Amino acid sequence: MWMIKFLALGLLFAVDAAVDKKVVEKAAKEVPVERKISAQANTLADKSAGLAFNLYQTMAKDKKMENILLSPVVVASSLGLVHLAGKDSTAAQAKAVLSVDKLPDDHIHTGLSELLNEVSNSTARNVTWKIGNRLYGPSSISFSDDFVKNSKKHYNYEHSKINFRDKRSALKSINEWAAQTTDSKLPEVTSDLEKTDGALIVNAMFFKPHWDEKFHHKMVDNRGFMVTRSFTVAVPMMHRTGLYNYYEDETNTLQILEMPLAHKLSSMIFIMPFHVEPLERVEKLLTREQVKTWIGKLQKRAVAVSLPKVSMEVSHDLQVRSTIR
Question: Which InterPro entries match (predicted)?
């Protein structure tokens, strides 16, 4: 299988900071305008982005991992749930991973809740976004009513008991739930379960962005896509020319392209080397500060874009050892 490593930061860029946009009155009536989020949600957006970059760097070191697809907000929200459920030491660890040690607990949960609702508003952002969150616990434990109420309120989590000892039945139950949650877009969220004596957090997400300026269906053809200098695969390629934010980093021999998604409340950033090469060099450059520098140098210009038309299905196992109260 040819390799793609992709960091889904587009969702975060839309809420990373409040943006001042001038919109004519007519357009304002037809297109949703990005609203300013609260200070705590803005802080959590910043921390979620930092967490995503750190997590990506860690996962990229695994040579067996072919595709990386992360939703920073979903990962941060899962840590928020761990903090909500964990005892003192576990809750403190969750805050440390999120780098929010000094934030009051209620600010963490209300901020993450607001952030999650903002980026997952599929109507305002005109994207196909289907996500389900479920906490599976062994039949031997019971979740407190207060925890169930708050995890539903802040993170929209469902709760179920499951027999982890019956591995086949547990897998079947989890995957059937994932398929139902995503309207069969994700028929299998996991193919294996490790033995666990605690609870299991499962996030099932299907995300399909819609371009602000669509690719014409007739501007698609099959072309060779160079994975390495010696390995090429045939893939359907989409083509269009338009005005986009673009920057060439001649020092690092990279091209940076920003393509807005529908309603321009979110965007997708592409970082591409000048020539075909292994990803390790580019991955080492992917720090929060460097990406901010690139974005700050983007300028509007005419760009001929050719992109592979791909669909990725990825499952990541992020283990957290904790004690649930």
Answer: Serpin_dom, Serpin_fam, Serpin_sf, Serpin_sf_1, Serpin_sf_2
CB 243 within 8 A of CB 222: no
Beta bridge partners of 308: 237
At residue 293, does pLDDT exceed 70? Answer: yes
Judge whether 34 and 265 are in contact, CB under 8 Å.
yes
What is the Cα–Cα distance from 114 to 112, expressed in whole angstroms?
5
Q: Is pTM, for the whole model, over 0.85?
A: no
- What is the rounded distance in angstroms from the CA atom of residue 306 to the CA atom of residue 222? 11
Which has the closest alpha carbon to 233: 24, 22, 3? Answer: 3
User: Which residues face 223 on adjacent strands?
Assistant: 235
How far is the C-alpha of 35 from the C-alpha of 16, rounded, in Å? 12
Candidates 321, 312, 304, 291; CA nearest to 54 is 291
- The DSSP-derived string for 231-264 is EEEEEEEEEEEEEEEEEEETTTTEEEEEEEBGGG
Inter-residue contact 111 to 98 (CB < 8 Å) = no
Residues 6+ apart with CB under 8 A from 35: none
| Residue at 236: amino acid letter | P
At 73, list the tokens.
Answer: 């907000």
Helices (H), 86-144: 88-98, 105-119, 122-125
- Amino acid in the structure at residue 198: G
Q: Of 259, 263, 264, 207, whose CA–CA distance to 238 is shortest?
A: 259
> Going along the chain, which residue ranges are E strands?
128-138, 157-162, 200-208, 220-228, 231-249, 254-260, 267-273, 299-308
pLDDT tens-digit readout, 189-210: 888 887 666 788 999 888 888 8
Tell me the two tokens of residue 184.
């069969």
Residue range 74-126, pLDDT digits in tens:
999 999 999 998 878 888 999 999 999 999 999 999 999 999 888 887 777 77
Share of the chain above pLDDT 90, in %: 44
